[in-house]
Design a protein that fits this description.
With 422 residues, the chain is α+β, with helices and mostly antiparallel strands. Helices cover 39% and strands 20% of the residues. The chain has 2 domains: 15-169 and 229-317, BirA Bifunctional Protein, domain 2; 328-420, Rossmann fold (3-Layer(aba) Sandwich). It has helices at residues 18-34, 48-55, 60-65, 84-93, 137-154, 170-184, 193-201, 212-218, 230-246, 290-293, 308-317, 336-349, 364-373, 384-389, 408-421, and strands at residues 38-39, 45-47, 67-70, 76-79, 103-111, 123-132, 161-166, 251-252, 266-271, 280-286, 301-307, 328-332, 355-357, 378-382, 391-396, 404-407. The strands form 3 sheets. It has an 8-stranded mixed β-sheet with strand order 1-5-6-11-10-9-7-8. The protein has a 5-stranded mixed β-sheet with strand order 13-12-14-15-16, sandwiched between helices. Bound molecules: adenosine-5'-triphosphate and magnesium ion.
């Protein structure tokens, strides 16, 4: 029988690749916790209605990308395509929005039925943050400053550019929508089919079209930025002013609208040239209407989500290598209880030691081969002579330092000295 393969666009993360993931996850968790965000873990599956309501009809995600299915009770469920809707659902369900100021982060897999290609998968991973209940521009600025500091933590700050725009308030978008439709209607037959449809259902989405001909037509379209009301304009000035004061570089991209429907006012993205076509690494913005759309009291919100695969690719492109080789690999001709006994006593004396014991036995030659393959810096040899003398031979596997006989009661201290000095 043939062996089965993983679903197209859904990838295993193999042992050889896990060190980078764990490194990245730990750096992100440390930094987000330090800014006062707390992790939240929500289900991978939600009611489909949550996403159709929150993300909006006429978006790519809802129209084409959702993994929705009927469960055995006939209820329509959906593998989560993004995190914000579920976090808002949880916050409402558990009454977390009072008092205002909740800050949470999440990390995990998301599912979108897209065409798989480099930088685009059907199961991919996001880490995201959300702040609820605070409308001040200071929140936007702190969030952007935090992300900027993340890029520095990870050594990719010089690879990423920040673009910002304002989508205005609801009334501003309504006025702009009319202006955009007036502009596009005479050109309708030159738009791509999706955009033609959206001209009636959700014209702002047309700005996000990936079709080059549509984008060319949009070059002369009216600008959302010219339709901002006074309050939204002042908010944008305040946010970008604070970024300037913090020394954070940004550019204004008046065409930036984001792929989801719930955004208003500040939206932003970090992009890179280093990854080819799929260059957006992190994106987010304000969603002051979303909580009301989901049935809560009007509550401002803001957040971002970053693509873990793309961010990790960027970190790897910067030349960073992960994974820590074992300190030592124990080879021995003696009985299992001697080998295990020595290993456990070393772990008692130096709990952080990265130690592998040869569990397969056989000749010294075979054991040394495995020791070498493990990447360990030294081999610890426990043979008949060593056992009798109460010693262990320490053999350098990577350099040509002379081998040493070390009394067992000095071994942990000697190893620790050698590696902690290095
Ligand atoms: P794109 O324009 O690339 O489709 P998007 O606007 O759909 O992105 P968001 O919903 O804002 O993306 O998701 C935030 C981030 O998650 C993206 O910037 C990207 O890094 C990552 N991401 C989104 N979709 C995928 C995917 N299919 N595969 C890998 N990463 C993804
Ligand atoms: Mg997309």
């Amino acid at each position: 029988m043939n062996t089965l393969q993983a679903v197209r666009g859904m990838h295993d993360i193999l042992p050889a690749d896990i060190a980078g993931w764990q490194w990245l996850e730990a750096r992100l968790a440390d930094r987000l916790n330090a800014y006062g965000y707390t992790e939240i873990r929500i289900p991978l599956v939600e009611k489909t209605e949550l996403f159709t309501r929150a993300i909006g009809q006429g978006t790519d995600v809802v129209e084409k990308e959702m993994y929705a299915f009927d469960d055995r009770n006939g209820e329509s469920l959906c593998l989560r395509p993004e995190g914000t809707a579920g976090v808002v659902r949880a916050a409402l369900q558990h009454g977390l929005l009072n008092p205002p100021g909740l800050k949470v982060w999440y990390t995990g897999p998301m599912f979108r039925h897209e065409r798989p290609q480099k930088g685009r998968q059907r199961q991919f991973h996001q880490t995201g943050v959300e702040v609820f209940g605070v409308a001040t521009p200071e929140v936007d600025a702190e969030l952007i400053a935090m992300a900027t500091r993340l890029w520095t933590d990870l050594g990719v700050d010089d690879q990423l550019t920040l673009e910002i725009n304002s989508l205005g308030d609801r009334d501003d978008r309504q006025r702009y929508r009319n202006a955009l439709v007036d502009f596009l209607r005479p050109l309708a037959d030159r738009l791509d089919p999706d955009s033609q449809r959206r001209l009636e259902s959700n014209p702002l989405r047309i700005l996000d079209s990936k079709n080059p001909d549509t984008q060319a037509l949009l070059a002369d379209a009216p600008r959302l930025h010219d339709h901002l009301g006074d309050e939204a304009a002042a908010h944008f000035e305040a946010v970008t002013g604070m970024l300037g004061a913090l020394g954070i570089a940004w550019t204004h991209n008046p065409g930036l609208v984001r792929g989801l429907d719930y955004y208003g006012r500040t939206v932003f993205e970090w992009t890179t040239d280093a990854l080819g076509a799929q260059g957006t690494v992190c994106a987010g913005g304000r969603y002051d209407d979303l909580i009301e759309i989901q049935g809560g009291r009007p509550t401002p919100g803001i957040g971002f989500a970053l693509g873990m695969e793309r961010l990790l690719a960027l970190v790897e492109a910067s030349g960073r290598r992960f994974g820590r080789a074992p300190h030592a690999y124990l080879v021995s001709s003696e009985a299992a209880e001697h080998r295990l006994g020595l290993a456990e006593s070393l772990r008692d004396a130096w709990p952080d030691i990265r130690l592998l014991t040869d569990l397969q036995g056989g000749s010294f030659k075979a054991q040394f081969k495995r020791a070498d393959r493990s990447g360990a810096a030294v081999a610890l040899v426990l043979g008949e002579g060593e056992l009798a003398a109460g010693e262990v031979t320490v053999k350098d596997l990577r350099g040509d330092a002379p081998q040493q006989s070390v009394p067992r009661d000095r071994l942990a201290a000697a190893l620790r000295e050698r590696f902690e000095a290095a």
